[in-house]
């Protein structure tokens, strides 16, 4: 029987069907293949294709707001196209716990919510086998697929071997392979100058070989200061039969203090020629950083030019500027990374097959991922017409709520210290759309429904959106119609190259009940071209769409593929989204003001009385008629009532 | 959890989700809804919408070739858009057996292979409860959903009640409801003049009411000769509380003999004014038929004009002309029925969700249905990438094989009494494409891979196809590219109205190994625009497509719907199709000639040495490049070899 719908077995196993057979074939779209590959396969493919890559190392933050900032950094640095990121295991930070600052939670957030292939460090010394197994089980449950197996530092001054425990990273590698077989890809550390505790450089190389033989898949090295150091080490690795990828650890010097601290920890010696430059400028952070960038760029160039290095691993120290600068100068930072899907994907293995989502969460993808994280299966090919998708509650959605909730003063500056009328709310929306500063000189960079400034795609509709928001059509989501643009289009493109993407025009907004009355009259004239859903907070629901029939509003046609239709307007999900969308008025906006204050009552009034409306223009090859619908609605609304 | 892929529960239960809630909505495409409705729901919807319908009654044939002819008739009469057909239960004909002429097999063929909603008659007298249950179970297994519950005629002269058995149709209705609950829709017979065995007209009406109360869903009446007869009966039915649909049985008089026979069987009296017209012309079949048609048309008009009749049921006597003529004159025959899918659907309940098929069987849809009839699930939304679709063997495919196999002499006239070379085969293909008679004056109406003359869609490519067949590119399947034509397009349209349909250009052909060598060189220049699969009978397989990745080549975008992509080029299915396609050379063509004859050896040579090729041009918005590929291949083939 054709297993018609599950295009992927859904297992997290590494061997993808595409790779199981060898036959003459053209290049299947890389974006698509990588989605189903494990990290070591991605590396192998890149090495074979001669493509370069980079990866980024972060450490866990110390505070919740630090975590929120780090996650934003993941999003920004993720857009440059790292092959993976890694998160260090900080024994002091309760690394395997559920705290928002723990290594485990940070790494899992990177995978699940930022869509980044993530490598979680894990140390083994001073821990029981049971604890380690628990950590690994938890990592697996959270969607992590890659572990960097480390010994970790001893607690005391002297290293004491434990007979029954894990004394070396190799023990951890063996344990992972024994308990989890091939589930995890395993990385181990290499020391270009030998580990400081090792008897000798050669002895240390032998230990490295043992880790690989025990089942490790690739190596990331300790930092170093000269390209020869790494290249000699690499040659020595190859000489003793280490054939896996060895990624040089690049440390762009970013300041005098951090350099000294790192050197102390790693027991490395900074070459005199570097110290000679740095010492005189040690109080000039900018100068040191610029020097560090220059140094890193030239070292990376030497490594890449050797032809032996394909990927560079960056110790970012959780900072952006220096690393991005080095990558840009190397031409390795992707300014405009291709989007595999029109929405931000998750990298959780169980979501690998996911390729359809409701359009409603387009500006809140993390909320969507959060609310669907308990699902066992994800829609693939079709959304289908289930009557009960079990959307989770938003209550534990703290990390991302924090982001927009924390700077209350900031929000008041954007959304108004005081609101006088519904019209003041219209103005906030209008300033958000226009991007112009409001009368107090503050730009409205976000709204409760939109974490970020207007997407480039929405910008295509800017003029129309401004006009309608001013009149009280408070738009929170929209897309233009697209009739077969290349999939490489910088604004509306997504998916593998040489494809064609399509969209139906979509508009979603809050508006008053008076406006809705006019709209409903007008919509009669647009049947059946326009589909609509009109709901209020009490669940009153007016629609001309079939109850359980989703409407595909974004789709793509690609060479040698089935059709992909990544966004739909699903009537059932809309009811769940409606609750979230209305709640945001209160949770994120009204609560900025004192109880009983006029400002708060205005927002409360809107929450209680406005409707949430979505409109789809089904005739995607024609000019978008939704603006005309709104125009007609204004006219209808303004028409003197006949009595 | 969203049940992402099974858009339908797959149960055969009648209550479709679309109907379970009442809300304001626009008309969802009827074609689509009807696919998921049971017969009584279809009627209800048509009554509510004020749409008229007709249905057609057939009796089982006596011979296997009669069965083949009847099935062709189902296809032709099915194209006029009957709401359903019914097949009578002929006690003499072993009606529940597996014989190709049995009522059961004929009805199930109509459902499964002709895609017709079918009502199977079943009589109950002189049968045990167990036998009847077995019949019903078998009917269910074969995909039948509707039973016409009848008493049947007594065996002896006198009617004897059996204490334990079924004496009346009402017993059968009760039995069906008791044993099968709501699975079957049940029809019962009504007698506008009362059943001849009934004590009185009123008594007979009461019996009818009992059958309805026992669970019957609608009524078909015995034939009658005056519209008042039916309208009075209908009024009387309504008066005693029968509210279900009552379909008048229309009998267009087609000849003197058949009229007399029917009158005798049904114990009806033909009105004198009709006999007065018929008697004088009783030896003039054409005159009687014309009169019968006139009479039926005016009676039907009166019924429809009453506003009380929505559907007409025709006693066809297994003939086409009179019934079609009546329907055409009433404007009820659909000259150009909308295609819900680009391929011929099956009406088996388990295939309701089926909406994707490989393109290969486009000209042999019955073979495809036959080879997939054991599947428990059918692809819905996506074909997916199973590596082992279990296609059944063709061995039991007798009914349709018969059709093209039987007239050997006919086939020889079309395909050549004698073949002299491969070129004579090229000519056969070319005449098939051109539609011109061959030098012996015979049109080539079919080929082993194409049961019917060229489809209108393929006709769009006629000139190109003729040219390439002449040169030995022996095409067996093709479609032009289509970039967003209305779904109502008379040639390439399908699916609900107000949609847009798309296609990638497709070409499938046999050709020599020399031509394939040239083709492969040429195809390098068309990477990755063109996807290809090239196989020979031994299974050698050359392709540039991903092993398990189907390529959607037909898709449609509809208002308020997810994307539908009904045909794909699936690499795995192609291997199964290849076996069928090569076998047809031998089974249907070579075997027309004597063993060892030159003609047979030519076909055998082609079978053994040619390749089967399919090509897809992925760039559907551009001009189809496949003709250029073939053109280039001819040039490459003709190029003097450089040595």
Automatic annotation (TrEMBL), chains A, B:
Reaction catalysed by this chain? (6S)-5-methyl-5,6,7,8-tetrahydrofolate + NADP(+) = (6R)-5,10-methylene-5,6,7,8-tetrahydrofolate + NADPH + H(+)
Pathway it belongs to? One-carbon metabolism; tetrahydrofolate interconversion
Write down the InterPro entries for this protein, in alphabetical order. Answer: FAD-linked_oxidoreductase-like (IPR029041), Fadh2_euk (IPR004621), Mehydrof_redctse-like (IPR003171), MTHFR_C (IPR053806)
One annotated GO biological process: methionine biosynthetic process
Task: Return the broad EC class.
Answer: oxidoreductase
Record's superkingdom? Eukaryota
**GO molecular function per UniProt:** FAD binding; methylenetetrahydrofolate reductase (NADPH) activity; methylenetetrahydrofolate reductase [NAD(P)H] activity
This protein's cofactor list reads: FAD
Bias type Low complexity, positions: 1-18
UniProt keywords, alphabetically: Allosteric enzyme, FAD, Flavoprotein, NADP, Oxidoreductase, Phosphoprotein
Task: Tell me the ranges covered by the MTHFR SAM-binding regulatory domain, including all copies.
Answer: 338-636
Enzyme Commission number, as recorded: 1.5.1.53
Cellular compartments per GO CC: cytosol
CDD domains in the record: MTHFR
The residues the entry assigns to the signal sequence are none
Region Disordered: list its residue ranges: 1-26
Q: Which Pfam families match?
A: MTHFR (PF02219), MTHFR_C (PF21895)
The entry's function note states: Catalyzes the conversion of 5,10-methylenetetrahydrofolate to 5-methyltetrahydrofolate, a cosubstrate for homocysteine remethylation to methionine. Represents a key regulatory connection between the folate and methionine cycles.
Assembly behavior: Homodimer.
What protein family does this chain belong to?
Answer: Belongs to the methylenetetrahydrofolate reductase family.
Question: What protein does this entry describe?
Answer: Methylenetetrahydrofolate reductase (NADPH)
Please report the organism this UniProt entry assigns to the protein: Xenopus laevis
């Amino acid at each position: 029987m054709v297993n018609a719908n599950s295009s992927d077995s859904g297992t997290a196993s590494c061997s993808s069907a595409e790779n199981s057979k060898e036959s003459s074939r053209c290049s299947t779209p890389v974006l698509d293949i990588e989605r189903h590959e494990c990290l070591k396969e991605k590396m192998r493919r890149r090495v074979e294709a001669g493509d370069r890559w980079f990866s980024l190392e972060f450490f866990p933050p110390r505070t919740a707001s630090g975590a929120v900032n780090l996650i934003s950094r993941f999003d920004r640095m993720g857009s440059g196209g790292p092959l993976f990121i890694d998160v260090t295991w900080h024994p002091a930070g309760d690394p395997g716990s559920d705290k928002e600052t723990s290594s485990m939670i940070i790494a899992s957030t990177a995978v699940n919510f930022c869509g980044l292939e993530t490598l979680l460090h894990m140390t083994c010394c001073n821990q029981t086998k049971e604890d380690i197994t628990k950590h690994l089980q938890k990592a697996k449950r959270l969607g992590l697929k890659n572990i960097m197996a480390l010994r970790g530092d001893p607690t005391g001054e002297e290293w004491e071997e434990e007979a029954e425990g894990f004394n070396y990273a190799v023990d951890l590698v063996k344990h992972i392979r024994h308990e989890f077989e091939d589930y995890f890809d395993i990385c181990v550390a290499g020391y270009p100058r030998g580990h400081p505790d090792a008897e000798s450089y050669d002895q240390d190389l032998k230990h490295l070989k043992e880790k690989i033989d025990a089942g490790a898949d690739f190596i990331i090295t300790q930092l170093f200061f000269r390209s020869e150091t790494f290249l000699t080490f690499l040659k020595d690795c190859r000489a003793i039969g280490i054939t896996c990828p060895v990624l040089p650890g690049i440390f762009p010097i970013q300041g005098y203090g951090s350099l000294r601290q790192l050197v102390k920890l790693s027991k490395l010696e900074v070459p005199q020629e570097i110290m000679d430059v740095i010492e005189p400028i040690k109080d000039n952070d900018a100068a040191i950083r610029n020097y560090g960038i220059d140094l890193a760029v030239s070292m990376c160039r030497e490594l890449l030019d050797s032809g032996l290095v394909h990927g560079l691993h960056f110790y970012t120290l959780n900072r952006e500027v220096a690393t991005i600068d080095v990558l840009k100068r190397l031409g390795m930072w992707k300014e405009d990374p291709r989007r595999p899907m029109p929405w931000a994907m998750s990298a959780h293995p169980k979501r690998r097959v996911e390729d359809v989502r409701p359009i409603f969460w387009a500006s809140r993808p993390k909320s969507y991922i959060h609310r669907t994280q308990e699902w066992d299966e994800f829609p693939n090919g079709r959304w289908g017409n289930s009557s009960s998708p079990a959307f989770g509650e938003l209550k534990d959605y703290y990390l991302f709520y924090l982001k927009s909730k924390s700077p209350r003063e900031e929000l008041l500056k954007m959304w108004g210290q005081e609101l006088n009328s519904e019209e003041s709310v219209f103005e906030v929306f209008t300033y958000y759309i226009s991007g112009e500063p409001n009368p107090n000189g503050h730009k409205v960079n976000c709204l409760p429904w939109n974490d970020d400034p207007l997407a480039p795609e929405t910008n295509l509709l800017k003029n129309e959106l401004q006009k309608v928001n001013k009149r009280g059509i408070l738009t929170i989501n929209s897309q233009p119609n697209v009739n077969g643009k290349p999939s490489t289009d910088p604004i509306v493109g997504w998916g593998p190259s040489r494809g064609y993407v399509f969209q139906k025009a979509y508009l979603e907004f809050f508006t008053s009940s008076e406006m809705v009355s006019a709209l409903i009259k007008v919509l009669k004239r647009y049947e059946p071209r326009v589909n609509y859903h009109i709901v209020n907070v009490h669940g009153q629901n007016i629609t001309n769409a079939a109850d359980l029939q989703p409407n595909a509003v974004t789709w793509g046609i690609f060479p040698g593929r089935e059709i992909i239709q990544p966004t739909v307007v699903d009537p059932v999900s809309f009811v769940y989204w409606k609750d979230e969308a209305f709640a945001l008025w209160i949770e994120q906006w009204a609560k900025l003001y004192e109880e009983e204050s006029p400002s708060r009552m205005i927002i409360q009034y809107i929450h209680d009385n406005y409707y949430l409306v979505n409109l789809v223009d089904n005739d995607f090859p024609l000019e978008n008629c939704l603006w005309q619908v709104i125009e007609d609605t204004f006219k209808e609304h303004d028409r003197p009532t006949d009595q």
